[in-house]
Amino acid sequence: MKRKKPTLTFGDALRRNRAVAFGAMVKPVGATCNLDCKYCYYLDKELQAPKAKPSDVMSDELLEEFIQQYIQGNQVPVVSFCWHGGEPLLAGLDFFRRAMALQEKYKGDKQIENSLQTNGTLITAEWAQFFAEHRFLVGVSIDGPAEVHDANRRNRGGKPTFDSVMRGIELLAINGAEFNTLSAVSAASERKGQEIYRFLKSIGSRFMQFLPVTEHVKRIEGWPREVIVSPDDPDSHRAEWSISPAAYGRFLNDIFDEWITGDVGTWFVQMFDATLAGWCGVRPGLCAFCETCGDALVVEHNGDVYSCDHFVYPEYRLGNIAADHLRTMFESPEQFRFGLNKRNTLPAECSRCRYLHLCHGECPKHRFTPSKSDPNERINTLCEGLAAFYKHSEPYMLKMRELLEAGQPAAMVIPWARQRMGMSF
Fold first, then answer.
1. Least confident of 17-31, 302-316, 396-410
2. Which of 26, 34, 178, 357 falls 20 to 30 Å from 57 in CA-CA distance?
3. What SS3 string covers 252-298?
4. What pLDDT, on the 0 to 100 scale, is given for residue 233?
5. pLDDT band at residue 192, thresholds of 50, 70 and 90?
6. How many CB atoms lie within 10 A of CB 181?
7. Catalytic (active-site) positions
8. 272-300 pLDDT per residue, tens
9. Of 15-19, 364-368, 406-410, where does the model show the most confidence?
10. What's the number of CA atoms in the CB half-sphere (13 Å) around residue 105?
11. Which residues are CB-contacts of 128 (< 8 A; sequence separation ≥ 6)?
12. Does residue 25 carry a pLDDT above 50?
């Protein structure tokens, strides 16, 4: 009888002889934002905690504590900061100037990198110049052309935001600030994969991230609209703006067909990179597709630290940087268990899947669809779409793996892919 592989214990992990490296997404204004996007789960956390005010910006004392702990806690030559929200630009330019000075103060012989995710509407020439000067990688949230973007991404007054975002992107380009894009894939994106992909190329986005939107909502008395809640809530239902699993698979396949026949090596799609990494036996750059997770903490504006951006709930609070060290929280038994749970709670249906090495059950946040083999287990709600994409892309991924193993660029797959699809050269 084959022995079952033992679960790695926390003590085993601590005894591993490797440098400590961890990520931390810091939210200097918490969930505060100038937009009111339909699918934003951050804003609906206002029901679970006191409402954040525009003045709720991380204090100078906490900012310094965070930067010092984060740099000193990472035993690697390059330390990467990720500024998020809410809308981090609401913290103000002076806040980020202080942050840059503090990074300089504590960096020692380490190299510092900064990335920031923004809705793009508050970018001015001064912001763009700052980003360029300090070599920020700016992620801009834009869902596609105006009719797709404005379907869900509106400001607090209900006005469309597409034009404001495009002005921000133009200012980044003019001032030489590097940017990429994050696009939510919702019901508004269905059957528009190639249109959205071509649009993002037209605005100069060399690296694209596509984030599927799949949430449950319910009506709560005294709240002006349905709010996002756990899918376990018996009174909840699937939000009308969620992408269906089948539609998500078609969306990815439509983009993939255009990318594989002309854009490999020139334009980059995070999902395709992660899938190729899985086929090559390399750890993907996307935690959702790793066997275990827990490598990236979340630091709120008040110093509270949580296990993951998708699990900012009381039961996942690890501590506060005013009283606890980031590295200690990262190495805590609680965080280690959180990371291992992704693998240890994997449904039996997933363990039998031929694409397990690519997906690993995806993000636990999305595991709420009853398994066909065991209704008591929950599989990823996007499983059907992911499987359709993996099946469709498999021969091309294997060909790129073959090229890479032979020391040739993956882009050499293009003529082969065009021929396979019956396209002329």
1. 17-31
2. 178
3. HHHHHHHHHCCCCCCCEEHHHHHHHHHHCCCCCCCHHHCCCCCCEEE
4. 82
5. very high
6. 25
7. 309
8. 999 999 999 999 989 999 999 999 999 99
9. 406-410
10. 14
11. 168, 171, 172, 174, 175, 177
12. yes
Res 163: pLDDT: 99
Tokens of 381: 């709600």
DSSP characters over 166-182: HHHHHHHHHTT-EEEEE
- Contacts of residues 414-421 at CB distance under 8 Å and 24 or more positions apart, as own/partner, are 414/260, 414/261, 414/262, 414/264, 417/260, 417/261, 418/261, 418/262, 420/395, 420/396, 421/257, 421/261
pLDDT of 354 above 70: yes
- Say what the pTM is: 0.92
- Rounded (5°) CA angle 157-159-163: 140
Under DSSP, the state recorded for 54 is T
pLDDT (0 to 100) of residue 12: 40
* Distance of alpha carbon 63 from alpha carbon 321, whole angstroms: 10
pLDDT higher than threshold 80 for residue 107: yes
The answer to whether the peptide bond before residue 193 is cis (omega within 30 degrees of 0) is: no
Beta pairing, strands 237-238 & 317-320: unpaired
One-letter identity of residue 243: I
Show the domains of the chain with their CATH numbers.
20-345 (3.20.20.70)
Neighbours of 45 (CB within 10 A): 17
Q: What CA–CA distance (Å, rounded) separates 107 from 109?
A: 6
For the chain, how many residues are written? Answer: 425
DSSP of 115-146, one letter per residue? Answer: EEEE-STT--HHHHHHHHHTT-EEEEE--SSH
How high is the pLDDT of residue 19?
A: 65
Q: What are phi and psi of 230, to 5 degrees?
A: -65, 140
| Short-list 332, 304, 299, CA closest to 99 | 299
Q: What is the largest CA-CA distance in the chain?
A: 67
Structure tokens at 230: 């756990």
From the list 379, 376, 373, 297, the residue with the least C-alpha distance to 338 is 297
- Residues with Cβ within 8 Å of 323's Cβ and at least 6 positions away in sequence, in order, are none
